[in-house]
Amino acid sequence: MKELPTPTLDLSPIALPRGSLHLQSPLCGELALACTNGLAGNGTQAASQGITVAWARHLDEVREAQQLRYSIFAGEMGAVLPKTIPGHDVDLFDDFCEHLLVTDGRSGRVVGTYRVLTPAQAARVGSFYADLEFDLTRLRQWRSRMVELGRSCVHPDFRHGGVILALWGALMQFMVRNRLDMMIGCASIPMQHQGLAGGHAAASIWRQISQTHLASVDHHVLPRLPLPLRALDDSLDVQPPALIKGYLRLGAKVLGPPAWDPDFNTADLPMMMRTADLPARYRRHFEAPQDRACHEVVTSAA
Questions:
Q1: Does some domain include residue 16?
Q2: Is residue 301 part of a domain?
Q3: Nearest-CA neighbor of 129 among 111, 152, 113?
Q4: Taking every pair of C-alpha atoms in the chain, what is the biggest distance, in angstroms?
Q5: How many domains does the chain fold into?
Q6: Where are the alpha helices (DSSP H) in the chain?
């Protein structure tokens, strides 16, 4: 079993010990159950399945997440992925990311995952993943307090609100404990969505969201390979994917028009969420009491 390397750079501009990332208590697991019971409509199902949330500590745990990602991205979505390790979704950012895992207590298998790229680690690898798809110039002043979320996926048997909320509970703890207050990421819309092919669904979703959840102009970014919106029908009544709807409920904003990712065959929307914008009803569930006090200190100092 190979231990993951400990980064040599600080997690954020505030010199915090690396151990502050991974809680030594079962609080994450308790938080997951609180989230599923308190917020998800089928939270009882999530609790009865005994899911737990933890940060990967060993390379074999990261490999489990990469296997899950491959089965969903390549198996379900038809993504064309590098064959670095057969049956795994691996890219150059993985070694620099923290990997959040949801595990099924019955089988012991990883059933959900996020990867998180911190500001210091983004500096080490040279960019955020989103830099490959978008010109993030207007976000440069926030980079030191901005983390990137990516490669999110959940096993088909566990796609209920409980798993997603459990992941978000741990993510919010991560943000508050490490004095970070902005999350960015690429939220994907399959080019074939709700029975519509060719990107028309993605264009319609962009039109809807841009009217209600567009960030201020000083946060706008531009796609490097834009989805050809002018050639698509954007007048369709289409619902966004569940994950995007969840982001919007949590106060997320879209930063600009979608990019086309030909490898994954998706339209990717640049999204941003600030912890200060998280609705109070969700913050009460996501944050432990000591973290809530910490958040108030960070917010007042910002």
A1: no
A2: no
A3: 152
A4: 53
A5: 1
A6: 27-38, 43-48, 59-70, 119-125, 161-177, 200-212, 242-249, 280-286, 289-301
Range of the domain at 260: 26-296
pTM given for the model: 0.80
Instruction: Say if residues 257 and 227 touch (Cβ distance below 8 Å).
Output: yes
Residue 302 lies in a domain: no
3-state class (DSSP) for residue 202: helix
Token code pair at residue 214: 């567009």
Find out whether 117 and 174 touch, Cβ atoms under 8 Å: no
Domain CATH for 241: 3.40.630.30
Whole-angstrom Cα distance, residue 61 to residue 200? 38
Assess if residue 14 is contained within a domain.
Answer: no
pLDDT digits over 39-95, tens only? 333 333 344 458 899 999 999 999 999 999 999 999 988 899 988 899 999 999 999
- Does residue 198 contact residue 31 with C-beta atoms inside 8 Å? no
When comparing pLDDT for 173 and 205, which is higher?
205
